Structure formats: C-alpha cells, structure tokens
From TrEMBL:
This is S-acyltransferase. The keyword Acyltransferase applies. It comes from Camelina sativa (False flax). It is a multi-pass membrane protein. Its main location: membrane. It is found in: Endomembrane system.
Length: 256
C-alpha cells in the first residue's frame, strides 16, 4: 500500500488531521503560549472588566469592554494557529543526490591501488535575476538549497527564506508563515495595551469614587496592578520583537 507523503516524511515534523496541519517537533510548547495569552485576559474579564461593566451600565457601554478584550484575544489566537500549524516553506527533499552534479573520481592509495569514488560539489553557481549566486549542497535533504534557504537542525528540513525557529509557536518561521508570525507578534501588543489601559482606568475610578489615594485603590484591586505589571513586561517583549522585525523587513534581511 502506497504511503502518503506525510506518513513517510523523514523530518521531525508532527502531522495531524491527515497531514492537513503541520507542526514543529516542539509543538508541546504551544499550550504554555496559549495560557500566557488566555489567562491574563480571563483574569481581566473577571476581576476588572466585570466591575467596569457596572460603572458604565447606564451608558450601555459596559459589555463593549468585555467584547473588545475577547475579540483581541481571538484575533491573536487565530494568527498563532496560522503561524504554528501551516507549512513554513519546506523544500521537499530528494530521495537520491542529483545525478547531473555527481563527479566520479579515482584516488590512489599509498600502495598504488586505485579506489573509485563518487563526490558532489559542496557549492555551485546559479543565476538569479541575472545575478550569479553561490548555493550550498545539503547532505541531509540531498539538494542544493535555493537562495536564502537554510536547514533547520531542530526540524531537520530545508526551509525557504528561513528566519528562525520560534519555540513559543513550536514552529520554524519561513517564507509561507512569516507574515502570520509578524502579524501575531505585532497584534499581541493590542491586548497588552488594552488590558493595561483599562486596568489603570479602573484604578482611577476607584480613586475618584471611594478610596482617594493610589495606594488604597491598588489595595482594593490587586489584580489590576498585577495585570498592568504583566502587560508591561509582555509589551516590552512583543513590542521589541515587532520593532526588530520591522527593521528586518525594511532592510530585506532575516534573523539568521
């Protein structure tokens, strides 16, 4: 019985739903990433947005605070799934070395014996848009890597426009999922800004309504303080990544 391609795949990828979804070998890190996204938003909805909803109940805007937080989260999770569960740009490996590149040589040992051997050049020149580019041979995939293609040692595949392997999404980032990765990272700043802003706004409301000082308001809503700290740390991380990849895109470079 003939096997489907994903059933005979020699890389380290994990396939589900009949090969329709492809993950990296460390996809087990995805649940941790999901928790880092979902848990803060859930805490915000329970301990902050629920109270803000009562504050704005007379203006019919209370539920909008909850809906916006949930929609931001769903949007980020969709981008995460597109990043981690699709082919990042794998170059199918060959079953045999390219015969047209094989070189047959004969070596002479110290005792005068001749030993035939087959070798393949480590590099070769190819023309790309009229420019000569040197490409390297991959012994694992038995092919000459296209320009800007690299072999990911973690997933054991050659990937077009290989950028880096991201443990947070459990996938390597390449030609076919880079845009989703960038959208995921940049969009992750939205819930961070929103949750921290609404938490700070709730502290302000507590100060105005009953507690008078920042310290008393913070003691009345410690979850707001915790969420602001968490979102500030997360914003530094995803905001820095967003700025870094904006620089890479503007200069037409990759991480590695």
């Amino acid at each position: 019985m003939t096997k489907r391609v994903f059933e005979a795949w020699k890389g380290s990828n994990k396939f589900i739903l009949g090969g329709r979804l492809i993950f990296g070998p460390d996809a087990r890190s995805l649940p941790a990433t999901l928790l880092l996204i979902i848990v803060p938003v859930a805490l915000f909805c329970v301990f902050v947005a629920r109270h803000l909803r009562h504050e704005f109940s007379s203006y019919n805007a209370g539920y909008a605070i909850l809906v916006v937080a949930i929609l931001f989260t769903i949007y980020v999770l969709i981008l995460l799934s597109f990043t981690s569960a699709r082919d990042p740009g794998i170059v199918p490996r060959n079953l045999h070395p390219p015969e047209e590149e094989l070189r047959y040589e004969t070596t002479i040992s110290a005792d005068g014996r001749q030993t035939p051997s087959v070798q393949i050049p480590r590099t070769k020149e190819v023309m790309v848009n009229g420019v000569s580019v040197r490409v390297k041979y991959c012994d694992t995939c038995m092919l000459y890597r296209p320009p800007r293609c690299s072999h990911c040692s973690i997933c054991n595949n050659c990937v077009e426009h290989f950028d880096h392997h991201c443990p947070w999404v459990g996938q390597y980032i390449g030609q076919r999922n880079y845009r989703y990765y960038f959208m995921f990272v940049s969009s992750s700043t939205l819930p961070c800004i929103y949750v921290s802003s609404m938490s700070a706004f709730y502290i302000k409301i507590l100060m105005d309504n009953q507690h008078g000082t920042v310290w008393r308001a913070m003691k009345a809503s410690p979850w707001s303080v915790a969420l602001m700290i968490y979102c500030f740390i997360a914003l530094c991380f995803v905001g820095g990544l967003t700025a870094f990849h904006l620089y890479l895109i503007s200069t037409n470079m990759t991480t590695l």
